[in-house]
Amino acid sequence: MKNIPPLALPKFHGISTEDHDAFCFEFDVLCRIYDYYSNAQMLKLFPTTLRDSTLRWFMGLDSNSITVLDEMKNIFLKKYQDYYKTRDFRK
């Protein structure tokens, strides 16, 4: 496992111009590049990529309620999919 430079981390702010699927893909790529393969490593890293309202949303989740990265991604994608689809629909 290598140290990840903070500037390399993808960031998600929850604004309508951000694609939540692309963000998750970038997160997965980064984890592979830096040898973050274990569920625990990726779960610890995930919140460091969140900013603004998304970080506040994450901090509002019950502690230790999510133990698997795929579950975290599903909750995250479900939370932000409607917001992103609404933006696409407006175009």
Can you offer a commentary on this structure?
By secondary structure, the chain is mainly α. The chain is about 55% helix and about 0% strand. It has four helices and no strands. The chain is globular.
Descriptive tags:
91 residues
In short:
The protein has 91 residues and is an all-alpha fold. It has 4 helices and no strands.
**Residue share in helix:** 55-70%
What order do the helices and strands follow?
HHHH
Judging from the principal axes of the Cα atoms, what is the shape?
A: globular
- End-to-end span in angstroms? 42 Å
Residue fraction in strands: under 5%
Poorly predicted segments: 86-91
User: What is the arithmetic mean of pLDDT?
Assistant: 86
SS field, number of helical segments: 4
Q: Largest sheet at a glance? A: none
**Number of structurally distinct domains:** 1
Structural class: mainly alpha
Alpha carbon gyration radius: 13 Å
The total of beta strands comes to: 0
In terms of topology, how is this protein built?
Elements lengths: L19 H14 L5 H7 L6 H8 L9 H22 L1
